[in-house]
Amino acid sequence: MKKLIGLLLLSSNLVQAELSDFDINWKNEKQCLAINLYHEARSESMAGIVSVAMVVINRTKSAKFPNNICDVVKQGNVTESWKTKRYPDIPNSMRIFYPTRGQCQFSWFCDGQSDTPLEEESYKRMLDISDKLLEDDFNIDITEGADHYFATWIDVEPKWAKHMIYIGTIDKHKFYKSIN
Description:
The protein has 180 residues and is an alpha+beta fold. It is built from 6 helices and 5 strands.
């Protein structure tokens, strides 16, 4: 019941995001969570959006994943750009890397398409939700610790799902929790 009340408070208490937040700062956890929610769950109910957010947040608490939201969202294999790869003597700090297509934790991050939100109002809403979820005093996890999910429109269940605890389906995603 407490989780349901918190979810209702979240949906009725959103503040208006600043327009300046529209440019993604990949070091800002609120913006990283918001852009992930935008691409993964913007058309879902509040429960679906919060559940996707909780998977990202739960991953930051696990030793198996990076310990901050931006690194969790961007996690995956990278490939060095041809522009820097051809110069073996340049320092690593000057090298350019891009996500390897199809090898990211969140598919939108390495699909080769622009990550810039096209629906401004939806992105602002995701920023507001992210802001509320990242407040220290607002801590609900309706996923019971889930750290993985996949879309229900995928015909085949991922191989990793066989080795996890199924939590449930919320909107368009099935949620799973790692077995230690």
